[in-house]
């Protein structure tokens, strides 16, 4: 059991306040979705949770299991069980996908319990096949020359290999055709358990037909303005953010 807790979070980027008091609790066993218009701060929230240095926390706190993240490096956050699938995964030359994943897994394990080459390869083959990915992708440099869809699939492969406690998935559905969307969703659904929680950021309701969330949050103007169940996403799809703005009397 693990809990990610975001408390009155205010974040500035280049001196401009983007997040204006976000509150959120994600427990293992739960899938949360955050929806919201472009530019509202969804990626800012995900990058801040993971510890990207460009995002300055000016007020509030983020905790994992009551440990304050503010003093923790990106590596320490990963070791504590957090994982971020980025909206725009970076390409890294000179490190193969497989090497990257093995290092990431071992960084989270104690010295005397490192994953061996054989068990690593077995696990990799199993997950890769589950996601219908070619064997050759594992040996390519990280994300280099991958199409948008391949990058997203690869983020899910990493997640399945690393087995985080809480995964933040930033627009894993963007740019995917329907087949790739199904594969990516299959990966997330396969992870669903009492030991795994996710915060999925998406623009579109479509993803939530495949990964049915327990909670849906709407972010506007740097705050979560409404929380509901899966039905909230359907309502948004029908009425748009404008409908919600009117309903809540918001001016953002
Ligand atoms: P969303 O993911 O909801 O579309 P973002 O968090 O990406 O929104 O962006 C929110 C706002 O913060 C935007 O105005 C964006 O331009 C700004 N912003 C986010 N990240 C950066 C950054 N690294 N440098 C400068 N501005 C940024
Ligand atoms: Mg965006
Ligand atoms: Mg974004």
From TrEMBL:
Keyword Nucleotide-binding: yes
Keyword Nucleotide-binding in record: yes
One Pfam entry name: ABC_tran
UniProt keyword annotations, A-Z: ATP-binding, Nucleotide-binding
UniProt-listed PROSITE patterns: ABC_TRANSPORTER_1, ABC_TRANSPORTER_2
Entries under SUPFAM superfamilies matching the protein: P-loop containing nucleoside triphosphate hydrolases
Gene Ontology terms for molecular function: ATP binding; ATP hydrolysis activity
Protein family (similarity comment): Belongs to the ABC transporter superfamily. Ycf16 family.
Name under which the protein is recorded: Fe-S cluster assembly ATPase SufC
Species annotation: Leuconostoc litchii
Gene: sufC
